[in-house]
Amino acid sequence: MAGNAGAARKNGGFGGPHEVLADVYAFTGEKKYLKLAEKFRHNIVFEPMLHGDSMFLNKHHANTEIPKFIGYERIYQLTGDMQWHNAARFFWEEVALHRTWANGGTSQWEHFFNPAHNEAKVNETCGPETCCPYNMLKLTQQLYTRQPHAAYIDYCEQALYNSILPSLAPGGGFVYYTSMRPGNFRRFSRPFDAFWCDVGTGMENHGKYGEMIYAADKQQLYINLFIPSVLTWKDMVVRQETTFPAETRTQITLELKQNRRFTLSLRQPAWAKAQKVIIMVNHQPVSAPANADGYWRITRLWKSGDCVEMSLPMQITARRLPHSPDHAAFFYGPVLLAGLLGTDGLERSDFYEGGNNTDAANQLAAKPLPLTDVPTF
Ligand SMILES: [Zn+2]
Fold first, then answer.
1. How far does residue 306's CA lie from ligand 1's centre (Å)?
2. How far, in Å, from the CA of 2 to the mean position of ligand 1?
3. How far is the CA of 217 from the centre of ligand 1 (A)?
4. Tell me: the pLDDT tens digits for 213-243?
5. Does the N-terminal or the C-terminal CB of the chain have fewer CB atoms within 10 Å?
6. What's the 72 CA to ligand 1 centre distance in angstroms?
7. pTM of this prediction?
């Protein structure tokens, strides 16, 4: 889902029809669908991204723009025409690396803003819309497929653990905005009178955990995320067992029909100190040099029952809010930490909301903890 009617009226919130048309071209081979998809090249946005104009996005409706670039990357995949990719790649870098909050979301009141204004924006009662990481994850997956790099998975992990996973209420309900304001709290949709875009994408979101755990090319299997799972690849079964991030290790066991030589590529997370990570094969430490793409590689003749263990020590880190002298977020490994500030003055109903997205934002603004009451250090 993309954007809302207000944004559509203003400046082309057309979402992703060109992605769908490009898919129809892929299925049918009929060029007319590709030609029509290419007509959705929205030059007002496309040209600045193609030419690396980072300030252009300020004030643009965030989740109106993200699906456009998903469609442009899809056109690149089918045509090989680099300009579509170059625009999509610059857009991703700009949003994921320069306009993303600590929780993996982007925007404020649904709109991009100049990152130089972070200090003022963080204290507003609104916050990033959950639909944005939904679509950014889709674009990230496309770009990763073209050129696997651990930096893409760092973004996926940040968004999945800190934005998507906590957007589901215990007992049901989804989050529209997550306030970035210190001391504010999260609100979830009520079951019968809230059906925002974020309820729709909110349901789809929780099918995303499995999408990027593994990736593969002909001779290489990538272990990207540390999520318990079973993968069938070629004629083998790969079993990952872990309670990560509660435990700081994971274990991968291979079941093979016959011995097979291939490369296992293990992601080096940005939050892990490389020299502290221990990789063991069949309980023996191995040295696996890190590559420029952020993967440790082990190439060998693998046998059924072979077991790879990764120990990934975590530490508490502070990440400063860019352009802000006063605000920082604290992480334990990849997990964004939050303070338990109690619920004084709040009713259970304060944590649920209905109505439309404007109501959602207004209700979020209704009872923020005064900043003077927020613990600081
Ligand atoms: Zn939304």
1. 44
2. 7
3. 34
4. 999 999 999 999 999 999 999 889 999 999 9
5. C
6. 21
7. 0.94
